[in-house]
């Protein structure tokens, strides 16, 4: 961006090392999927093991010579490491290999740049890219140095590197200010939903677990969904109706990945706040993935980083159609409360179980019975209809309405408060609910 680097292309040599220095090992298969998702064309895969990476190249000199041979034999224009490289390691490798070198963070940033479609998403990607580039400006544009000696060559005292850094800092500040406005707008939307008592349910999970497919299945939306990593980058929200709950806002979020770069979490704070302020998290899991337990652990780590680890969570094991011995069902705890749902978003099997489980988890105390409404309580009757609490209606000889109602107790109390009517003063038809014993269902 601000410095001279070799030209890049699509033919790539992939490098993966098994480093035994206490860190979680990266998955080489996931690494290859990331490269393919970015549009790369892997022509060779170099693997190796080291106890401690070298400071200059990360790999040993022997592996460097092997890598040089692979680049030359395959005409590769790009070498991608499944690890985080320091700026000096990137420069040293590019000097030796004479081609572009990219690390895992740079690869994920490139995928994000391709996927961003909204103005907010593009700003967040640019912010992450600028922060990533800030450490890689050294030795850039030295031929335009503005601080030189000699008559006619003395500049204003600012080196080109300092100019680059100043411009980059200014642009970062501008983007952060714009994203702060986005964050404020999202916060206003959340406050409006809270005032209207509309719960928010967010889909979270490892990338390519099937969140967008499930979102489309539940809401009938047409969100972009494809079998590739990070197919979804921009958050999407839809309003749905659930029995006994009413209106619920469902949010589809960006997928997580192991060792998600911290600067990406920071840049996408405005988006991830939607998940951290949810009423319920649906943790979507690829039940057919061999590394299922590892993926669950990585998602939990990211949720902890964004402050969402303590939120109520319902696990959704997706892709049961790929399992031979498991069908759609609900797992419950000792108290009978749903803790996991097994389904297939692709075929639709078990999706009705998810709606049932969400209703049970979010379920409030529900009043269900036959309410007697006097002729002079027309406003109360109208407000119950507006709340969609009336199942059916009949009339008594004295003109009173018999309303078969099913309504969350909180909503009923709010309506009664607006009409200055005490809950204890309500009359219930003896054939439905006794006046002194209204039925409340959990």
Automatic annotation (TrEMBL):
PROSITE patterns: G_HFLX
InterPro entries: EFG_III/V, G_HFLX_dom, GTP-bd, GTP-bd_M, GTPase_HflX, GTPase_HflX_N, GTPase_HflX_N_sf, P-loop_NTPase
Residues involved in Mg(2+) binding: 212, 232
Keyword Hydrolase recorded: no
Compartments in which it is found: Cytoplasm
Keywords: Coiled coil, Cytoplasm, GTP-binding, Magnesium, Metal-binding, Nucleotide-binding
Lineage: superkingdom: Bacteria
Quaternary structure annotation from Swiss-Prot or TrEMBL: Monomer. Associates with the 50S ribosomal subunit.
Official protein name in the record: GTPase HflX
Organism: Cellvibrio mixtus
Lineage: Bacteria, Pseudomonadati, Pseudomonadota, Gammaproteobacteria, Cellvibrionales
Gene this chain is encoded by: hflX
């Amino acid at each position: 961006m601000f410095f001279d680097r070799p030209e890049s292309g699509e033919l790539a040599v992939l490098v993966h090392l098994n480093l035994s220095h206490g860190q979680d090992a990266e998955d080489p298969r996931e690494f290859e999927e990331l490269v393919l998702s970015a549009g790369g064309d892997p022509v060779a895969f170099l693997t190796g093991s080291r106890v401690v990476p070298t400071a200059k190249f990360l790999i040993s000199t022997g592996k460097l010579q092997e890598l040089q041979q692979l680049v030359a034999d395959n005409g590769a224009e790009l070498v991608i490491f499944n690890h985080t490289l320091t700026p000096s390691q990137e420069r040293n490798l590019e000097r030796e290999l004479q081609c572009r070198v990219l690390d895992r963070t740079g690869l994920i940033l490139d995928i994000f740049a391709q996927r961003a479609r909204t103005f907010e998403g593009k700003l967040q990607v640019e912010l992450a890219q600028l922060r990533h580039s800030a450490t890689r400006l050294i030795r850039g544009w030295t031929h335009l140095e503005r601080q030189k000696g000699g008559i006619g060559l003395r500049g204003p005292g600012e080196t080109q590197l300092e100019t680059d850094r100043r411009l980059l800092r200014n642009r970062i500040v501008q983007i952060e200010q714009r994203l702060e406005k986005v964050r404020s707008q999202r916060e206003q939307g959340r406050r409006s939903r809270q005032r209207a008592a509309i719960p928010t349910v967010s889909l979270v999970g490892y990338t390519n677990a099937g969140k967008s497919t499930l979102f489309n299945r539940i809401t009938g939306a047409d969100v972009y969904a494809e079998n590739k990593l990070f197919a979804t980058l921009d958050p999407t929200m839809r309003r749905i109706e659930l029995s006994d709950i009413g209106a619920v806002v469902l949010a589809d979020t960006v997928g997580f990945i192991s060792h998600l770069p911290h600067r990406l979490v920071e840049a996408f704070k405005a988006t991830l706040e939607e998940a951290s302020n949810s009423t319920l998290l649906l943790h979507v899991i690829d039940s057919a993935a061999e590394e299922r337990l590892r993926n669950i652990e990585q998602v939990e780590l990211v949720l902890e980083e964004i402050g969402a680890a303590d939120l109520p969570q319902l696990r959704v094991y997706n892709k049961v159609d790929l399992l031979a011995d498991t069908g759609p069902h609900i797992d419950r705890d000792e108290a009978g409360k749903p803790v996991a749902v097994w389904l297939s978003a692709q075929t639709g099997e078990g999706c009705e179980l998810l709606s049932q489980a969400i209703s049970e988890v979010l379920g409030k105390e529900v009043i269900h019975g036959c309410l007697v409404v006097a002729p002079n309580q027309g406003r109360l009757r109208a407000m119950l209809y507006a709340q969609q609490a009336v199942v059916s209606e009949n009339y008594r000889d004295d003109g009173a309405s018999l309303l078969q109602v099913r309504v969350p107790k909180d909503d009923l109390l709010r309506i009664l408060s607006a009409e200055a009517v005490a809950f204890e003063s309500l009359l219930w038809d003896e054939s439905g609910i006794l006046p002194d014993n209204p039925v409340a269902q959990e």
